[in-house]
Amino acid sequence: MTRSLVFFALAWLLVTSGTINIAHIHAADPKPLRVLLVLGGCCHDYAVQQELLVAGLSARAHVKVDVAYDPDKTTGHLNPVYEKANWADNYDVVIHDECSSQIKDLALIDRILEPHRKGLPAVLLHCGMHSYRSEGYPDITPWFEFTGLQSTGHGPQQPIEISYLPDTGAITEGLSGWKTINEELYNNSAGKLLDSATPLARGKQLVNRRGEESVAESVVIWTNNYRDTARVFATTLGHNNDTVADDRYLDLITRGLLWSCDKLNDEYLKK
Question: Domain containing 69: what range?
Answer without folding.
Answer: 31-150+220-260
